[in-house]
Amino acid sequence: MNPAPPRRPGRTLGFVALFVGGGTLVVGASLGARAMLSPEHGAGLFNLQAAPRFEWKSIDKKHWQAVSATPSEATDVTDAREGNRGSCPPGMVDVVGKLKLDSQGRESSGEIEELQNSSCVDWISKDFPARCKTFDRAGWLELSQKLPTKPVHYCMDRFEYPNKAGENPMIVVSYNEATAICKTNGKRLCNESEWTFACEGDEAMPYPYGYERDAEACVVDRPWKPFTENGLAPRDGKKAREELDRLWQGTPSGSHPKCKSPLGVYDLTGNVDEWTKTTRTGGYASVLKGGYWGPVRARCRPSTRAHNEDFVAYQQSFRCCSDNTNPAPASANASPAATPEPSDVAPRQGSPKIADPTHDIAEDTQDDLDELDKKNGSASGVGCNTSPGTANGASTFVVLSAACAIAVRAVRRKRG
């Protein structure tokens, strides 16, 4: 008996055909699909395997980066073109100005976000997750003109890590890992107030580009795709790569010229969530800013505080900051330094740390269904699921996500 012929390597086909009784029945057409000749089922039966949408690079067997189809730009070229490096290290922006504080002199109480909400004149949706199309600039300036301010001066990476124009951000990274990477590069993770000011500027604009939400300016409002439970476990390997390839909707750093803040920092809202360090005195150190590519708030002020320092997900990245080597002198009439902000999330002991859902999600208004159903701090991006160890199918996941959203709406109505 002759041995079975070897399996042929995959090839890109314009169509796939199944031979039946001497005739040909076309069962599908898919440019770019990968077909494998299957000798076990006859010469005419093909096993379809979707071709990857992107080429992926694994970093330290933990993180991932979609390889960009366009070449990256040299940092010195970018610095020369942008002209806002100042005395900061290469690739960083000199950020200087006055951060608006709330009426009590606090940096991150949520009061300013609520004031901004009152100046929204055109809502896309007031329901979860709330998104405003247009803010009234004159109204906002009147509301905010008497708020105290705090002088700030520091350096911030111009782009999301690895901070190179033309490269995609590195994703699947925890807060602790981001902190360590910044330290290795001689920098530190930005705190949430530094991130906020770099996004909004002295005027405290709701969006880095102004008062009108613009899906063409930054990468926002793209369709939400439910992720696969445990799809990133383990983080390194074929399963994680395929899950990321299915979900990824980000773009290379600097590819949207209008997604640039008044201070000259790119891609602060949308594209990917960014880890920052809290300025509050308790609770998690880890705070996510900016939102990602989905239909989420994607504004300068909102923060997500529901995830512990070891949490990872498919859309999370970061950028680094550093102290300016030539700090600007403090203004003679500047507002006093902010007082420590009381924590409304008590520190927790042990692991894992689970956020308080009634505060971190309802009051801080989680960015979107992803942020809502990942509140349990799973290291694999697990959704809003049943008890640990329970296997849920995709349909169950969607139902549970919807149930979580309904619960949050009910809490918010009750509190309102």
Characterize the structure shown.
The protein is of the alpha+beta class. The chain has two domains: 11-49, no CATH class; 56-353, Alpha-Beta Complex (paralog of FGE (formylglycine-generating enzyme)), CATH 3.90.1580. It has helices at residues 75-82, 111-118, 137-144, 175-184, 192-200, 238-247, 357-363, 369-373, 394-415, and strands spanning 11-13, 16-20, 23-28, 33-37, 46-49, 56-59, 63-66, 92-100, 120-125, 131-135, 149-157, 188-189, 273-277, 286-289, 303-304, 316-318, 320-323. The strands form six sheets. Strands 8-11-17-12 form a four-stranded antiparallel β-sheet. A four-stranded mixed β-sheet has the order 15-14-13-16. A three-stranded antiparallel β-sheet has the order 1-4-5, with no helix packed on it. The longest helix has 22 residues, at 394-415. The model is unreliable at 5-47 and 329-416 (pLDDT under 50).
Entry summary:
This protein is of the alpha+beta class.
Task: Jot down its keywords.
4-stranded antiparallel beta sheet, alpha+beta, 17 strands, paralog of FGE (formylglycine-generating enzyme), disordered C terminus, 416 residues, 4-stranded mixed beta sheet, globular
**Number of DSSP strands?**
17
CATH architecture of the largest domain: Alpha-Beta Complex
Cα distance, first to last residue? Answer: 78 Å
Major beta-sheet overview:
4 strands, antiparallel
Q: Which strand-content bin applies to the residues?
A: 15-25%
Query: What share of residues is helical?
Result: 10-25%
